[in-house]
Write a structure and sequence with these properties.
mainly alpha; two-stranded antiparallel sheet
């Protein structure tokens, strides 16, 4: 029976590594593009109220997008190392996603969600920059329309990701935050508690 039990288990590490790499590499590229664009629009005393607000949101969105992509890159890289070291097993008749959800659910969500949020943030930055930069209001609206179309298309495809249990951004974010809080509480991760606290503080300050 022990032999049969062992035969029913499989290490999906290679498949999981391939899946995470499919996100890690684009996330690194998006992080580089975002870093280069963050400070392209500097607020000026001569700006109108609308332009000034747009430039400030451009900066905030850029910082948030870069932070999200860096988390995606770091978490996926650490998880790739763990996959090679830990050698965890799952039922052989399952899939690589069953394996990841059994052993690395938080890491998967951190990689997927932050990559998607960072990508949407970069697209939003491009839209804001186009709207601010174009001197012709008509062409500014056209450029913003192109970006809006791209964002809506991406959101549609993101909701169809079959390997994520709740593919909606809201569902993924809720589960991600829950797992982060659970990990911080159960494992007494002080730095994680501080990170969550700073995240909540930043969100609240933005809403003021």
């Amino acid at each position: 029976s022990l032999v049969a039990s062992a035969a029913a288990q499989k290490n999906f590490g290679a498949d999981a590594s391939s899946l995470l790499n499919n996100v890690r590499t684009p996330a690194a590229l998006v992080a580089g593009a975002t870093f280069g664009a963050i400070f392209a629009l500097q607020p000026s005393a001569t700006d109108s109220m609308a332009i000034g607000v747009a430039k400030r949101f451009h900066l905030l969105i850029g910082v948030g997008a870069l932070s999200a992509e860096l988390i995606a890159v770091l978490v996926s890289s650490i998880t790739l190392t763990r996959l090679g070291m830990e050698g965890k097993m799952s039922a052989a008749d399952g899939s690589v996603m069953d394996f990841l959800y059994e052993h690395y659910e938080l890491e998967l969500l951190a990689t997927e969600l932050n990559f998607q949020l960072g990508l949407l943030g970069l697209c939003t930055m491009v839209g804001i920059r186009a709207w601010v930069t174009f001197s012709c209001p008509r062409f500014a609206k056209i450029a913003a329309g192109f970006i809006a179309a791209a964002v809506l298309t991406m959101l549609s495809f993101m909701s169809e990701r079959q390997h994520v249990k709740d593919a909606s951004l809201i569902g993924m974010a809720a589960r991600y935050i829950f797992l982060l809080c659970e990990k911080a509480w159960v494992e007494k991760r002080v730095l994680l508690f501080l990170g969550l606290g700073m995240g909540v503080y930043s969100v609240l300050e933005t809403g003021k």
